């Protein structure tokens, strides 16, 4: 496993790409409404990236066709934007994207409600998933382990009766979209790789309202919950510093 330690100067560059990703996500959020298609969100993101001079990180990655992943309701991750997929009142949509600026990547995801009539259970799923990400971030510091981070996420999720997806995990990031190490959203405290100052990680809980099982559809990308339950996804890019976690995608 080759862990790439970043210098403070490199982390500063990654802060720029992280900030751009967050700006794009907030811009795209404004297009989420009943009747919009997931391709409308894609078009908005692509235009914003072009305007910012940011290179899309996802488009072309292992043949992926778009700049966004848009995963609706029971879709967990890697949903492909489509003109045929219209958003409806009460849906939830996970929007995941990344960019490259000056050779460094940023990667982040949010899950947002469509319209104002979100069910209580869907709202709880979003709140718990976001809280589990925040719990994972709080566990990040030099000398902590990946097991500490995974356990911090898992404990929040399972205390609410939800399930952590295990097939997909977070990852290191830098001059490549996916670097070592893998960052599971489950684990045991004190176990696994020790975190060091200069490591940059993407923590990204994917949380199902039902069971943890997922399957990938025939398109080879879209992962859905096996039991048809709702799924939510939040992600931040985080640098390990001497002072703890620095969120680069705030």
UniProtKB/TrEMBL annotation:
Cofactor binding mode and count: Binds 2 divalent metal cations per subunit. Has a high-affinity and a low affinity metal-binding site. The true nature of the physiological cofactor is under debate. The enzyme is active with cobalt, zinc, manganese or divalent iron ions. Most likely, methionine aminopeptidases function as mononuclear Fe(2+)-metalloproteases under physiological conditions, and the catalytically relevant metal-binding site has been assigned to the histidine-containing high-affinity site.
Residues reported to bind substrate: 78, 178
Family matches, as InterPro entries: Creatinase/aminopeptidase-like, Pept_M24, Pept_M24_MAP, Pept_M24A_MAP1
PROSITE patterns linked: MAP_1 (PS00680)
A Pfam family recorded for this sequence: Peptidase_M24
Catalytic activity: Release of N-terminal amino acids, preferentially methionine, from peptides and arylamides
Cited CDD domains: MetAP1
UniProt entry tagged with the keyword Metal-binding: yes
EC number: 3.4.11.18
Domain of life where this protein originates: Bacteria
SUPFAM superfamilies to which the protein is assigned, alphabetical: Creatinase/aminopeptidase (SSF55920)
Top EC class for this record: hydrolase
Signal peptide segment: none
One GO biological process term: proteolysis
GO molecular function: initiator methionyl aminopeptidase activity; metal ion binding; metalloaminopeptidase activity
Similarity comment text for this entry: Belongs to the peptidase M24A family. Methionine aminopeptidase type 1 subfamily.
Biological role: Removes the N-terminal methionine from nascent proteins. The N-terminal methionine is often cleaved when the second residue in the primary sequence is small and uncharged (Met-Ala-, Cys, Gly, Pro, Ser, Thr, or Val). Requires deformylation of the N(alpha)-formylated initiator methionine before it can be hydrolyzed.
Name of the featured protein: Methionine aminopeptidase
Organism: Acidipila rosea
